[in-house]
Amino acid sequence: MSAIRSMLVWGAALLVTSSSCATTPTPGDVRLRPDGTPGPEKCPEEARKAMDYLRMFVGEAAFVVLDANQGFVRDVTLYDGPIESMLEDNLGLLEAPARLYGRVWTGGPQVVIRYYEAQPVKGGNKIPICAVARLGLGQLRKRPDSKPGTAILGASNAGVFIVDEFR
Question: What is the CATH topology of the domain spanning 3-22+41-166?
Answer without folding.
Answer: Lipocalin (2.40.128)
